[in-house]
Amino acid sequence: MLLYCFVLFAGLYASAKSISFEALLGSHKNLLLEDILLSDLSTKVVLSYSGTPYSWINLSPSIYACDEECNRHKVIRTEGIKLGERLWLGDDGKVSFALYFDPLPKGTKLFDIIEGNLHGGFYLYGIHRSSAKLNIPRAVGVVDQNELVSSVLKPDSAFIRGRFNGYERRSIPALWEVGYESKRVNPFDMEQSPTILKIEPDGSFCCGFLVDSSTWTYIDNWSGRSISFYIRPGDTLDIQIDHFGQWNEVISYKNLSGKPCYGNLMNCNKEAVWERLQDLRNESSIKQYDDKLYSLSEEVEKLIDYFSWKYHLSGWETHLLMSDWKLTHLCEKAEIRESKAFSLTVEQQKQLESSKDSTQIKVLKDYSFLNNDIWQDASIRITQIYERCAEIAKRNGILISELGDDNIVAKGNPTALQFSTYRIKDAKTQTLIDSIIACTASKYLEVAFMKPTYDKITSCYLSSLRHLTADFSKSDDIAFVAVIDEDLGNEELSDFTRSLSYYCPHIITLTHEDFLSVQTSFRQISAPFNITLTKDGEVFRWPLFLTQETSFRDSFRELLKRDKKNATNRN
CATH code for 150-267? Predict the structure, then answer.
């Protein structure tokens, strides 16, 4: 708690303009607190921002102030800025404005200003008077042995269910991917991994998936918006989301299995902190990056203390938050080295190695910091970033001991499974597959599922279709089929179909609901995507990779060679 009372805070501000305020952590170093005035009618916050001349900023109407008890206070009026509209910076790149929030409770000594609780929002955490002595206790992380034991020994199904209140398909995609993929299933089996969550027309959702261990994961719609959650084997978690996509999401978590769901931990908005790491990638040298990373680490440690205190985190929740930060910044530090090394040509690397001052190249190739005691902490495997960081460590010669029986990936040569097939279990989707197969007598079908919108990915598919259909136009072994989502106006759909028909002889149009059914069955939340089919209605576990033409030709050549060999053996 701060060592002063509300009356003194307000009174001193009114009589002494020299009083300054600061935040424990902000979303941008160029965003400054100028003035704060607390009253019975409102809380006035004056901010200034410095940026690129003639650029603009935009604050959502849903921005709010969050008091010590996590109550939200909305904006009642503004000065110098209109919420939801662009505010252009002048030739000096500077601007100032004021936000008036509903009055904070008397006795408030520090508060937050948050634009949203998901990635990308503006925020100022822990706003307080600069001269005040904060007495926020140090966060203490405690390992929960019961959680770790159950994580290793008791893999089980888990379920998430809930609702997007006020759901609209135009603003919220219907398909989401569950970020967790079990290692205890066949990674080549598209029927099992990854898990796709489908939002029903009323906004409700429910899905189950195999969980190897307790994990902190997310559902994602590939649009830069994701929702984090913590789940354990055997859990059923209820997630309710209000105002999604409006930067004032209210997400509530409830475990329906009788165990705590760690909802306080998930409310910490750790993404708001982690995104600060991305700003450091612009530093010109590794030394500058490392220096600023060290400074940011000190800020984050203070913020974890603040989160632990404000959200009443348990020792285990605090430990998970600490572990996630430690591993995340190690991973970012390694990735920035890899990216800078990759940008150098072989000749440039040789020149640096032979120069008198070869420090630069030595630093780029120094990954000794990954040989860290953190790998001995079993709880880091619960973090989302573990697999990525462990892969970098192993790639650079750092041995990572496995926890439990994690080595479930199919052994031997994975290409042995390349042409294995399965049959869709969902009767509706199989009927759609059968209708696609009926359009040609070819032995194999390469099928591209596309939305007729022109973007980079769709353009790649169209280009590959054009080249491959020309190369294989006389082949009786394979046919190319385009399946189109008709969720467009008739004129736009007609134009797309007409241009596609010049080089793709087989075009099928599905209703939007049927297209969604296919996406769900094939664990695809994006479009376009492709599958490879046999004439008998079997689906290849690994498609022949339509957008990579060379890869496609090599794979198809191997497939025909295998068929010829099998035919010879039968004879």
Answer: 2.60.40
